[in-house]
Batch of 3 targets.
Target 1
Amino acid sequence: MSLLLRDGDWVTAGALADTLGVTPRSIRSYVTALNERVPTGVAVESGPHGYRAGADAGAAMRSVPTVTGTPRDRLHTLVRALLDAPDGIDVFATADALFVSPATLDADLARVRALLGGTQLTLERSASTARLRGTEAAQRRLLSTLAHDEMEAGSFDLAALRRTLGTESVGAAAFGPFKADLVAQLGELGYFVNEIGIADVLMHIAIAIDRVSQDRPLAATEQPASEAQTEVAGMLAELVARDLDVVLGAGDLQHLATLVLTRVVAPGAGDAGRRDSTRAALDPAVEHAVRETVERAAAEFLVDIAHEDFVLRLALHVQNLRLRAREQAWSRNPLTRSLKSTYPMIFEVAVFIASELAERLEIPLMDDEIAYIAMHVGGRLERSRRGDQLLTATIVCPGYYELHELLRSSVDRSLGQAIEVVGVETRVDPDWDTIGTDLVLTTIDPVASGERFVRIQPFLTDADIERVQSAAGRIRRARRLARLRTELERYFDASAFVHGLDASGAPEAVIRRLGDLLITQGVVDEAYVERALQREELSSTAFTDALAVPHAIGMTATRTAIAIGIADPSIPWGDRRVQVVALVAFSESDREAFQTVFEQFVEVFNERESAQRIVRRATDFSGFLDELVAVIDG
């Protein structure tokens, strides 16, 4: 359902099956199950072109099945039972309650053990009793992990949270007003609230209330509270008592106040008049590390991000991030997947920054935290590259009073963010061949023809605006892909092409296999392959539902080359499944080409139909290259 909602168009059963790593028959079963959730509506439409989200798709997503017997349901129920029973659970009684055999429950307990990795919790088994051992803070982190697993794309979903905590936990009627009051109070205290981050705070508050109601409070720490922590803790105590009728202890209030303060940003960080006060709140070591890392990233990727405002905002974010790391309270980001697939270059810059900061400040960084850094990078680049995206245009409008001036004014007002008018022809017989702008907006029929000529009315209409925007979009895409085709034809080689990747051991085995091909060509060495594996550990390079682009940080290849692997069916890669793996090795001399190749290559495979066409027909190297070029040429 998430895939269908994200695509918004028809998707074949085969394409869905490839993405999920199942058979088309399973897809049909899933569609039936989803439609059963809304008996009077349509969750998924079926047709000759496949499936697409129906009018009641949202209701199906929010609906809880009446029969909860899936492995994940059992796992969550089992973990919740273990968390609620300090003395442990009886394995046989729990198996009976879940309507499964003791052997099935033993298998589920093994999955619980796998889930506990890195949580500082252990699962003990003595005869028929199983119990969790670990601190209350560690148990709450496990609860937050389960809650995030229930919540689609990391967004705050109270219904999903109640499935994790139990239906007797805090309800929407109380929690809705509480959130509004919390945001209002933080605003009155002078904080700008990050709505993405505050969702995590709400989840932790709900978990705290649930645990306190079971007489499982957090112990207070000996670390003295700051003035800001004391202020926020007092506000939280009052709000929770008033809106949710729960009294939190000192340990819970201190913990929640820390979470709030690491997810809100004091206003004025980008105001030149307040830079000194912002810097005063920063740890000099953090600011220094961020400044040097940003300068290195700007030089490595040739991007315009080394600005004072950007450094200060990012340093403030990283300082909060370091505090979250100490609490092991990572902030989820619902935009992670879309940022990675839509803005791969921006995400790659963020990965570079995260890698440097992780080493300098000893902060382990997850994908969601890297996505927050990507949002900072994207915001900075958006400011600096808006002008670069403008297409030039000439208006052809035969002179009649001030008609051409009125038309130019209308174009500037309606299309000024997409095109820049650099000339106006008022002759009825202009020399069309001498007009060299990207677009020609003409009120008369042009003698010449082509994509760049757009017929418009003397008085600009909504239809005219749409035609111009559409033409501008086609020209931009054609230019991007033309540059990509020119670059790619230099980088591919038949000896670095593999059809039929093995799913076992992916992605490490695939990276090593493709890396060996480039080593044989003398393009890279073993060290490069090892660095590509290290880069993969930082953040999965599966940028779309079809394509992974593993690579090492640093452009150290003797020449730029790409090794291609085709998998049919798809293979697991991080939290996705992919069918095309492109191991990319860039040389220092091709630094400027990196952005073009990286972004546009991902763009091609971000279109599901194009990806499927290439995979289905690329049984050998020549077929792959032919199909790739055909897709690029449209």
Target 2
Amino acid sequence: MFRAVARACARARSRADAQTCGRTRARDESAVWTSVRATTPRCWLGTKVELAEDDGTSASAREDSAREQTLRRRHVASMRRALRANDFEGVRREFEALAASTTKPGRAAWNVNVLAAARAREPEAALSIVESMLADNIGPDVSTHTAVMQAYVRAGRYGDAFNWLKMHLYGVPKDVEQGFDGEDNVEMDTRYDLSHVIGDMIDGDEEHVSKTRVNSMMFTTVMNGAAKAGDRATVQEIETMMFEFDVAPLADTLHCLLKLERVAGTSASVESVWDRSKLKARALKAHQERVVAHAFLGRQRTQRAAESRALAVKALEDLYDRVGRKRSDEDFAKLEKNNHSGSRYARWTGERGLEEYRNNLVSDDDIKKVGTKEVLIATNAVMLAHAAVGDTDTVNTWFVRMEEDLGINADVRTFNAVLRAEYMRDKIKLGVVDHEQAMMRFQEVMLAMEDREVEPTTYTFSTLLLAHAEQSHLPGVAEVLKLMQERGLALDTTMYNILLGACARAGDLDAALNARASMVKSGIAAGPDTFVPLFAACTKQAEELDLDGDMFELDEEVVGPLLDRTRATLDSVELDMLSSNVEHNTQSFTALVKARGALGQPDAVFDMISELPENIELDEVAIGLSVLAVAKREPTKAIALADSLMDESMVLDPWLLNCIITAYSHLGQIKAATERVQDFIKRGGVPTVATYNALFRCAAQSGSFAEYAPLVMNEMSSRDLKPDKYTRKFIAAVTAGSSVLDRETAEALLKKCPGGDKFFVAEDAAGQDDFDFLADAGFDDDDDDDDDDLLL
């Protein structure tokens, strides 16, 4: 970046001919900005406009100058209106008209172009425009530099924005000047030479930039990007730079610091930042950021999150007080009566009252505009935080308070929060969502939105779609999609992921593949979560092939060609992921491990574990599923795999222990499995009922059930663990075995299980039970699967 800027600086300082100055670097730009460069007058791309010779004293010259200034202001105003509407094509057209009707567009017009590139998240296009400015003999000012940094931050490259800020403040490194002759690897030095900053465009001595060349916005633009990324070190370094250049931390600085704590802190740290700031009462946005930070930290069902939600409500109360309310007639009459000469009084309190007094506002509609944006954002954040835990009472309370107390109408996010709260309430309390009732409620909400002229978004339909998808209710999914189509709403990545999940739960691999093909055709970008249900659908189809309990004990030729086809489909899905440049996250990687294991491909699982993607750190779930995937054919390798991958935090995980016991079951080594459990307990681990159920199964497969099963039952009793349905299932399976002693032992133990010995389940002596790995690991919430909790 510095080499490119330095080259532009050198061209500007040399003041070479216009053709040379007009050359710009070729860059990969968006279609919008490619069109801009293709259709813009040459003066935009760096070719100077030759000025007519004039002594500047004639009346004609003064008239022409005045006319140009008027045209320039008019076109720049139009450019700014287009920019506010994100109409980048409109910005280009107005600039083109300005360049055609004047001798020079002027710095303001150039800056609007740089801002347009920033809005479009195109930093390379912004750099091109800056070079064209230099070629037009117009030096960048504070607004220009801020816009370039904005472009970097919006593109997710806040590190580059930080480097640009340092370049502006301290100058271009000397090494860059020395690297003009073609060196590609130019390292930044810790010292800068101010004389090499963009030509002579920046004032200052060898140590500091002139105060006229810096302002708070330059620092907070970069700070905002670092805060969103949770980069505390960079935020602190920028604070130090602000102190060095004597730039006072204004309200925007407080916003950034609150945003940092939202991402990388706690509610306690949010309050700490708030309490030590002296600016909190001056800006409504600061109140908004405080509320949003607490609400963001409160979107979980934990005690700490509950505390964050309580703080979010308190902060929202403070925001409402700060915005102000309308005084009653009695209060207003009393205020007028006690008024002293020159003192302020208004019908409204807070910020609204100040605006009413300062601007002589008389219309309540005008006064209510004050704080509308901040209140909407903050209230929606609080509602969404409580919606995540199904707290419909709090959600409805703030909905009413916002509209009645402050006169601010709900927007689409407000209604989305209402729908999500009711969905989560039913899911948490009842476990399922009544489809008919959910549809009726959805229609009621849609009518309320129409009354307020609020247009639904794709997200408005996502809750209803999720309610059908989670229960594999494909007709309901189709109905929701039809409603969206009628309103002209296209599916986005989230909606496609929900649709794919519905197909996977229903076990309809073909439907899932068709949905993915539609997603590709629509040009919707995929993410790692897009491929989780596709992998799961392959897994589900593999499990359906297992008609006799364990497909991997059958000859694959007996299973038929569907197994090979499913393997080929899984290969194609993985290839699709690679060709789409989508990197695995832990969930997608684990789902693929699960699918490979279900399809009897332990070698592929080993290859995956041996060549982990750089961004993947295996957790206990992924390791456990890897063990289970390999255990059926290579149980010894599965145990060794677990031992090699576990860290100290995983050693005491009961679910991972249960997976290892399953591997011992395939070896028939009940003694080694028992010793493993004892070692787990000595280390401080706490076994669960599922641990002892796995030992029962291992005892049955080892042929030593009569010897070990009573010991396992006694150990359960000593830990006050009660047998469950799976305990009974494994013990009952032994009653169908050939060993008389094992059968008698099993019948005796069944009396200690729920239901006594009234019912025996006729299963093979091995007690095979291929549970749903993804359900146990939290990847699937199909409540109809009886084996969901087997290992938990």
Target 3
Amino acid sequence: MTRATVRLTMAQALVRYLCNQFTVVDGEKVPLFPGVFAIFGHGNVTCLSEALEAVKDVLPTWRGQNEQSMALAAIGFAKAKRRRQIMVAATSIGPGALNMVTAAGVAHSNRLPVLLLSGDTFINRRPDPVMQQVEHFGDPTINVNDAFKAVTRYWDRIVHPEQIISSLPQAVAVLLDPADCGPAFIALPQDVQEIAWDFPEAFFEPTVHAIPRPRPDRARLEEAVRLLKTAKRPLIISGGGARYSGAEATLAKFAEARGLPIAETIAGKGTVTHDHPAHVGPIGIVGSTSANALAGEADVILAVGTRLMDFTTGSWSAFSADAKFVSINAARWDATKHRALAVVGDALETVSELEAALGDWKAEKTWTDKGKMEFAKWNTMLDGFQKPTNEPVPTYAQVVGVVNAKAGERDLLITAAGGLPGEVMKNWRVKEPNTFDCEFGFSCMGYEISAGWGAAMADPSRTPIVMIGDGTYMMMNSDIYSTVLAGHKMILVVCDNGGYAVINRLQNAKGGASFNNLIKDCRVKEPFSVDFAKHAEAMGALTRRVESLADLGQAMEWAKTTDRTTVITIVSDAFTWTPGDAWWDVGVPEVSDREQVREAHSAQAEGRKKQRVGV
């Protein structure tokens, strides 16, 4: 029997396959790949672009301004969609491809899906070396696309059109795998993109994908139940995996019914609302005094969907030496860390089964009450930090408090690197689950504005509120222009504190002199302040520069009425920070001419004595 075939170029076949992949979100069948971010160059404009133009009404292509930023926008989209839909980012070869490597690192660290397609050199090598080709004298098979191997979950180079038949399904499987989720990269050599081949029509049949929900091993679950029942002071740590699983309501109900205090990681913030009865605040280095106090006393920690990075664990100093961990995670690697009892499985399924297996067990009321008491004290502290004063320059806490108060219940807060992650982790009071995105797995300066574009595209019914510092604005701001062009509105609040203020804080805290961080401490002819409002206005945004907290509140109210991206700038304090932090392990010089550095090294050595020994 002769199979039905269709003759297409490799690029055309790839695009047709993407157009026929679907998934189900909230009961509705939707495209698995709803769009492509692309910047075309000689490595993809003649073949891949031709294929994308033919389906532009089915698979929309959005023009980026920078390859890194458009891939970050794709990541922001995936995060806003809680990994249920996936964007594509396509570049040419050479510098365009390498610009995407940083974004791939963001996706890899944060376990987020994005499909990266890059042009490649010629497989036949006839025109070699082509423009933008980096040659390796001892290995001509290597080019810049090999750099993606370090920061992707799946990597392939298509050297024959037929290979996409096996490669694309494997890439999709990785993108949808809750345990192995991350970026998939496929290199597309220029000469192979153009080659026509008779593809089987069955390859393009519409396919509806479902994200798998692996259930936990029964014996491990029973062991977790036994261990939890021995706990006198149990604590839940909710991570990003709880949100991606859709376990928010289940975990919130479980924590309240069982009397377990629930703390949140950076990726997990927004699992519950700020005022949920079991909530005790964010944990770790940018955490609250309440959650960190409980962590220090907890005897059994139920870690749900978290990779337990150093900012969560206080570099593994936040817990008592004999505390025991039960780690629920879809990824075996994450579940097995630090001698934890690894319960490998989907967060929603595992918490549901854990709830059913616990019988009438509850945490002791004295412990539950302690969580409420510590959190009440923390909220009183927050009120004090956010209260307006007569100081001429407002603090981050005050600025965050005003923006938070003016935000709608469903508005999405987005930030990443710099001083704002710690300040919003502590001061932002989540009004509705899944309205908080702080990228800190890779702590990538530049993620924020691009992610705002992706998030606005993902859900036009809510407004992303992006908060950044002046350093991040200077590093990557071009997607302000992208959002104006595309009609995807966000509100951008720029806190101008004169440079890289939070890293200056760390520099000073470890005994170092202020050097090369704040503009005034850099090798400059004279300090100079950028007018960010005028700059953003030149890119088509509506803008307002404010001087006071009252003006900021009015500007936020105005920004919510505008029809396009709106940028508000305010000068903020570079030296006042919200306390609550746990200890953090960083390198401090063992010898130095500065007495402050020597003292800091001694203090760091003392802190390391509290660290939990493990792997």
